[in-house]
Structures are given as C-alpha cells and as structure tokens.
Amino acid sequence: MHKHYDVLDRGLRTLKLEASEAQKAALLVYADEIERWNKRMNLVRSSGEAIITAHILDSLAGVSYLEGFAHVADLGSGAGLPGIPLAIMTPNCQWSLVERGTARAAFLANVLGSLALAPRVRVCCQDANKPVAGVKALTCRAFLPLSVVLPLIEPYLVAGIPLFAYQGKVEETEIELARYRMSGELPAGYEFVATKLPLISPWTEAERWIWKLELRPEGASSKAGEVEDGE
C-alpha cells in the first residue's frame, strides 16, 4: 500500500467524494510525480504528505463546482493544480491544461502519459489569453493576481464562460476584484458579478474559498458589482 494512501482516503471521505481504487491510485501516482520532479523544477513548496493535503485534496474540494461542465481549461496550470486532480475525479469532463512554460508543460505531458488521461486531458503550451476552443468553464489556482487575470480572459467572460478561482483571504481577494472594477477595463454593456463559494479544506488553518467570476449583460443581475455568497 502507498505510504500516503490512508491520508488520501481519509481526505476523500472528509470531502464526501466517492473514488474508485483506480482513481485513488492515479492521485497517488500524480503525487509521486510531483515529488520526483519537484527537486529540479520547484513545482510546489510542499513535500511528502503535504502534497496530498495542501494541494491535491485542496484542489478536489472544488470538484462539485466543476463536474457539470463538459470542457474546462485550467489557466496557468503549473504543476497541474487544480486541473489534474479534478480531471481524475471528473471522468466525463474534458480538460485543457494551459501552461506557457515549456518545462512545466513537459511535466504535465509526462503526467498525462503516466496516468493515461490523454486525449481527454491535454496540455496547451500557450499564454492564458490565447483562446481554447470549446471551453465551458475556467479554473485557476496560485496563478496571477485576479486584477491581472480578469482582463486577460475577458473574451471568455463575455462569452458567458465563468472563472472559478481558488483563493485565500477574502479581504485580499476583494481588493483584487475592486482593482479590476475600477480599472476601466470592463467591456461596455456588461456587469461584473463575483460569487464567493465555500471550500472545505480542514487540512489547513488558512482561509480558503472559490470565487465564481462572471461578466453578465447589463440588467441581467441585480447583484452586479456586489459579492454574492454561494451555497
């Protein structure tokens, strides 16, 4: 049995996620790949068991928000977080891992080969503002500040494609969202809507949320410019 099997298994049960033994094995192989490549690529700041708790389980805490979309693009995928754990647990969903760095894109391609996730999951070695065809939702985690990300992805948002952003402290996120609102870069005829969604992450004392960020045609939402609390 893998040395971190029990930690992963307990975490999945805490998240109320039903995972097959094949899915658990894939998540553990992925953790091992991060550990192995981390020594020369500095993919994450964690090691050992913390890769499971701080990164893989944290990523999976958002699965209920993404599993209904047919095709999701993970922007600035880096080590494949949250895209690869979510892809493992959403077998009916297509994923595009968008990563501009060639070395990290090579890591992602290697992992997809090891886990036999291709072609349902693919690597797009490109900038985040370059469109990915067929996408229905976006994710990002530990990427650029939201005040930078949102202008980059406005074509997606205008097309009705939401961004689900993994974030920490509410105050810091609200500052970034305010910067975007006051930047003058909102496209004419649209209103910006931010919905704060709970993220179960009992493995850390740090504050964790997912923010669903959208542009809606003016008048379509009574909450435009405000923060909505999700379920």
Q: What is the architecture at the second tier of CATH?
A: 3-Layer(aba) Sandwich
In terms of per-residue confidence, which ranges show pLDDT below 50 for 5 or more consecutive residues?
A: none
Shape: globular
Could you say what the CATH topology is called? Rossmann fold
> Helical region count?
9
Instruction: Return the domain count.
Output: 1
Number of strands: 8
Summarize the amount of helix as a percent range: 25-40%
**H/E element sequence:** HHHHEHEHEEHHEHEEE
Which CATH top level class fits?
Answer: Alpha Beta
The largest sheet, given as strand count, sense and whether it forms a barrel, is: 8 strands, mixed
Bin the strand percentage: 15-25%
CATH-defined superfamily = Vaccinia Virus protein VP39
Based on CA atoms alone, the radius of gyration comes out at 17 Å
Distance between the termini: 37 Å
Mean pLDDT comes to 93
Broad structural category: alpha/beta
Strand order of the largest sheet: 3-2-1-4-5-7-6-8
Structure description:
- This protein starts with a helix and ends with a strand.
- Strands 3-2-1-4-5-7-6-8 form an eight-stranded mixed sheet, with helices on both faces.
- Helix 1 (5-14) packs parallel to helix 3 (49-60) and helix 2 packs antiparallel against helix 6 (102-115).
- The protein has 231 residues and is of the alpha/beta class.
- It has helices spanning 5-14, 21-41, 49-60, 63-66, 83-89, 102-115, 146-152, 154-158, 170-181; strands spanning 71-75, 94-98, 121-124, 137-141, 163-167, 190-198, 209-217, 227-229.
- The protein is globular and about 55 Å long.
- The longest helix has 21 residues, at 21-41.
- It has one domain: 3-Layer(aba) Sandwich (Rossmann fold), CATH 3.40.50.150.
- It is 40% helix and 19% strand.
- The protein has nine helices and eight strands.
- The mean pLDDT is 93.
